[in-house]
Amino acid sequence: PLKQGTLFSFFNKP
Amino acid sequence: MFEARLANGNIFKMIVESIRELVVDVNIDCSTEELSIQCMDSAHVALVSMSLSQSAFDHFRCDRSLSLGLNLPNVSKIFKMMGRDDTMVLKAEDSADKLMLMFENDKSGTIADFELKLMAIEAEQLGVPDTAYKCSISMPSSEFQRIVRDLQVMGDTCKISCTKEGLKFSATGQIGTGNILMRQNVASEKEEDHVTIDMEEPVELNFALRYLNFFTKATPLSPTVILKMSPGLPIVIEYPIEQLGHVKYYLAPKMEE
After folding, report:
1. Nearest to B127 by CA among A8, A2, A6
2. pLDDT at B233
3. pLDDT digits (tens, 9 = 90+) for B126-182
4. Does B240 contact A at CB distance below 8 Å?
């Protein structure tokens, strides 16, 4: 099964 | 104060249409350089980044940077009243508590004006790093729209793989599997019909088709769409607006648990 990732795991808060 | 006049007001209407199914409330950031938007959908799965350079405008004045907090369903209702050939004028004071919108049409002699209350929106900003992607594909935006629309009948997830063979879109569901392969194609005289694939290494990622379909609302903005992928990174789906700006979508991939 695939799990939908969120953008927080890839991009940082500036 | 902020004041901007766009002869082809329809561009702005199309930008609003390209975002409104993803986000409800949005800040339009105005600077001396450009109008820009960065926002995420409520599930934090997709990010939209829009830029429209001041050079797109016939007149552009922005004395100090400000954010215009807008409710997109309301903005969309107002833009429904804009004619196809209307010029659009935006105006706001530095206090930015309301936005004036004017739609002018020289041919019919009509001027419509609207005053829209602005909101203070707390937006979560993300730092999107400038990355060199392993695969970059340019293709007709209408073709991309057709593929992600058609594949929805097969399943919810689209596997996008870029290999030497070409760019393959696959979806699997209860009824079976569908694959659509796009090969590099530069045969047409019209550059906008070309499919170009720059691949440094093969990439295969899975994405929610629902989101890919939201992004194709930007199709009227550009004849071409650019897809950028790297292993384990969000895909970038960019619709260039002539030489004047872009709407870019970032979508987090689905990963094995």
Report:
1. A8
2. 96
3. 899 889 999 999 999 999 999 999 999 999 999 999 999 999 999 999 999 999 999
4. no
Ranges of residues in chain B whose predicted pLDDT is under 70: none
Phi-psi region of B232 (alpha: psi -120 to 50; beta: other; left: phi over 0): left
Residues 149-208 in B contacting A (C-alpha not used; CB under 8 Å): 157, 206, 208
Nearest by CB: A2 against B124, B157, B234? B157
DSSP B243: T
| B125 chain-A contacts, CB cut-off 8 A | 13-14
* Amino acid A14: pLDDT: 62
Q: Inter-chain contact A11–B129, Cβ cutoff 8 Å?
A: yes
* Assembly ipTM: 0.93
Task: Using CB atoms, pick whichever of A6, A9, A12 lies closest to residue B127.
Answer: A12
Half-sphere exposure of B199 (CA within 13 A, CB side): 17
A→B interface, C-beta within 8 Å:
1-14
**How many beta carbons lie within 10 A of that of residue B195, not counting itself?**
19
